[in-house]
């Protein structure tokens, strides 16, 4: 079906203002037949019954698709079209235009139990209170990340050009791997007004509550916070 001309309303407005069809064609740069048809119809809407009649996208397939999607929202449109013996384009048209549904990708999120959800709601309220009185500007968020220091490569894309296999070995073709991957733990903090220096954990250190309290918070974070914020207020983690 041909899309309706968006200038129909302007054509009717100019015609009611006394402009001739030739003037409207010249002003709006539209075909003469479009101007005459719009003036004859007297409305910017399409003529009743215009366009190709619907043969497949009837209420029956619409109801079938609605029920099938309700039973299994992840159902493939291609499989539904094959099961109903209609084209895939027809199924997509019914789902998007008549059912007003659109495909949505799956999202990943943390699995939380009831206690964790309740705790998060409580913490969100405290964060809102901090934002209301300006304390969020002195709030510091910290996180840690474990980085592997072994060489990363893509076996499909990374290549070494050589004439022979021995020459390829000399060109560092081999990538070493070990059972215990070499890694390094890094801590960092960030606030609205600055960020902390990176805190590297020495290899072999046992990371527990005592280590985190003594080596990270008291030794690194507390001096930086006093210098950066001038007045350091101890609070609970949120």
Automatic annotation (TrEMBL):
Gene Ontology MF terms in the entry: nucleic acid binding
Family matches, as Gene3D superfamilies: Ribonuclease H-like superfamily/Ribonuclease H
Designated name of the protein: Uncharacterized protein
Source organism per UniProt: Ancylostoma ceylanicum
């Amino acid at each position: 079906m041909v899309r309706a001309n968006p200038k129909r309303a302007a054509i009717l407005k100019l015609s009611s203002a006394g402009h001739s069809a030739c003037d409207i064609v010249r002003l709006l740069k539209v075909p003469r037949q479009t101007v005459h048809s719009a003036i004859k119809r007297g409305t910017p809407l399409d003529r009743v019954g215009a366009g190709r009649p619907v043969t497949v996208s009837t209420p029956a397939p619409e109801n079938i698709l609605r029920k099938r999607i309700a039973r299994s929202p992840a159902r493939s449109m291609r499989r539904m079209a094959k099961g109903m013996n209609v084209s895939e384009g027809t199924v997509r048209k019914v789902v998007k235009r008549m059912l007003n549904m659109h495909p949505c990708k799956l999202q990943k999120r943390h699995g939380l139990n009831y206690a964790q959800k309740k705790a998060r709601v409580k913490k969100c309220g405290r964060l809102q209170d901090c934002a209301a009185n300006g304390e969020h500007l002195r709030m510091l968020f910290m996180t840690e990340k474990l980085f592997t220091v072994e060489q990363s490569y893509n076996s499909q894309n990374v290549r070494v050009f050589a004439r022979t296999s021995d020459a390829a070995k000399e060109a560092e073709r081999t990538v070493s791997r070990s059972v215990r991957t070499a890694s390094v733990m890094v801590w960092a903090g960030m606030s609205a007004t600055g960020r902390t220096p990176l805190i590297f954990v020495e290899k072999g250190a046992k990371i527990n509550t005592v280590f985190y309290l003594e080596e990270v918070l008291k030794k690194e974070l507390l001096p930086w916070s006093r210098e950066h914020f001038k007045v350091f207020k101890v609070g609970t983690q949120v």
